[in-house]
Sequence to fold (203 residues):
Amino acid sequence: MAARVDHGVSSGTFSLDGETFEVENNIWVVGDDTECVVIDAPHDVADILAVVGDRKVKAIICTHAHDDHVRVAPALREEVVAPIMLHPEDRPLWELTHTRYLWDLDLEDGLEIPVGGTSLRVLHTPGHAPGAVCLYAADLGCVFTGDTLFQGGPGATGRSYSDPDLIVASIRSALFALPDETVVHTGHGADTTIGAERQGLGT
Ligand SMILES: [Zn+2]
Fold:
């Protein structure tokens, strides 16, 4: 049984620095027919479980700790009994949303997360957030970039805990090392490819 990528969308809000915005977040689920991992936990547990189906969830992997990506992570953990994984450098952002709960396992650059006969490699890509990560599925020819890289360029860096020079350095060193044909599954909006974004950023 081959691993595959399943997708959903969940609507809600993003708040930081005293402002709140309506947002739609992508939900990405990677696995086979029996087990999977969930990438990000936005807004609504039911939206996520609709993509998971009756599969065993092995982990809830957070690309970063902005509230629109982690809000229902503890509630989802209760529901599916799986560890929440987050890069520890995002602790200050996590604590803006969750003061009573922590995550369970630290993500680190180079970590391989096996699921459903495939594997996700953690790429630490600070800039949008200090603990932002991307997840590269070499077998599936795709990378999950959270809010680090979108169709049309790098993620936003105008708010607290972001760094515009660092995000571009991260994209160039970690993401542009991947093959051009790699499909980019983003945290919000449409897919793109590494090749298209490499052209856009002018390397
Ligand atoms: Zn974000």
Observations:
- The first strand starts at residue 4 and ends at 16.
- Residues 112 and 121 are 4 Å apart (CA to CA).
- The radius of gyration is 15 Å.
